[in-house]
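Below is a filled-in request sheet from our internal design queue. Each sheet records the structural input a requester submitted and the sequence that came back. We keep these sheets so that new team members can see what a complete request looks like end to end.

REQUESTER: design group, bay 2
PRIORITY: normal
MODE: inverse folding
CHAIN LENGTH: 257
BACKBONE (tokenized):
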């Protein structure tokens, strides 16, 4: 039914009301979506794998809203005030006069609260330790027990179950030199990385070469392939030490002046 004819904009209520959920965007998200960067907005539901030893936060079991490198907790707020979603429409009961039609009346809104989370906490729970050739887990002390959850799960599936933005997960994966070998996802121990680096330096020295970026990754692998290290670990280590910029830094730079 339309309002009475007179001054102002006539309003009508649509017979078929639609369901809406209003989302209040914080300034950081607005800056991201109005920038030239290609930003993906999505909601992630966490996965609690069997055998997980800890819960990194009180909100670890809740869905989160992800925008670029940022992660937000969702909070639903009910309001006693009426909220109307309208669209332009010709009001037929008033001689097709231009007006607006109410197509929905949301009862609540969603607020976004930036989450203080670190994806590495979740990766620690699911990534198996890689100790290096000839080193057994029982030979190493001072590390948490290795997880078997990563067996048979790809990096993509692991990240999909972590309630932190995908870009932040990629950043933590990069910082940890995590890698996949077969059907198992690993994080190397400091000892494994140190020994791999020492083997690489020794091999380059024996060939009279320096680590200056002049040798391709494939060439580096050929030098140490008989040492027993998996090639994905070498790729992960070289990716980590060859740049000081994580993959997710692109999203952060997009909103900087």
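RETURNED SEQUENCE:
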């Amino acid at each position: 039914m339309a309002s009475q004819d007179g001054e102002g904009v006539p309003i009508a209520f649509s017979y078929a009301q639609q369901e809406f959920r209003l989302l209040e965007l914080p300034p950081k998200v607005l800056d991201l979506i109005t920038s030239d960067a290609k930003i993906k907005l999505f909601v992630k539901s966490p996965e609690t794998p069997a055998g997980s030893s800890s819960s990194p936060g009180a909100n670890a079991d809740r869905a989160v809203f992800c925008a670029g490198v940022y992660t937000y907790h969702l909070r639903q707020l009910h309001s006693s005030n009426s909220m109307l979603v309208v669209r332009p429409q010709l009001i037929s009961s008033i001689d097709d006069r231009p007006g607006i039609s109410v197509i929905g009346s949301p009862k609540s809104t969603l607020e976004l609260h930036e989450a203080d989370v670190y994806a590495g906490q979740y990766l620690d729970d699911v990534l198996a330790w890689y100790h290096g050739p000839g080193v057994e887990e029982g030979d190493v002390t001072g590390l948490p027990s290795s997880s078997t959850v990563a067996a048979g799960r790809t990096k993509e599936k692991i990240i999909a179950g972590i309630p932190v933005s995908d870009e932040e997960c990629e950043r933590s994966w990069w910082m940890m030199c995590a890698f996949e070998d077969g059907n198992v996802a690993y994080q190397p121990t400091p000892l494994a990385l140190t020994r791999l680096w020492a083997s690489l330096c020794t091999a380059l020295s024996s060939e009279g070469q320096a680590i200056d970026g002049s040798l391709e990754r494939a060439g580096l692998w050929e030098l140490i392939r008989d040492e027993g290290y998996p090639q994905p670990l070498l790729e992960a280590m070289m990716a980590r030490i060859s740049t000081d910029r994580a993959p997710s830094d692109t999203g952060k730079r997009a909103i900087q002046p």
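SHEET NOTES:
- The chain has eight helices and eleven strands.
- Residues 4 and 10 are 7 Å apart (CA to CA).
FILED BY: M.R.
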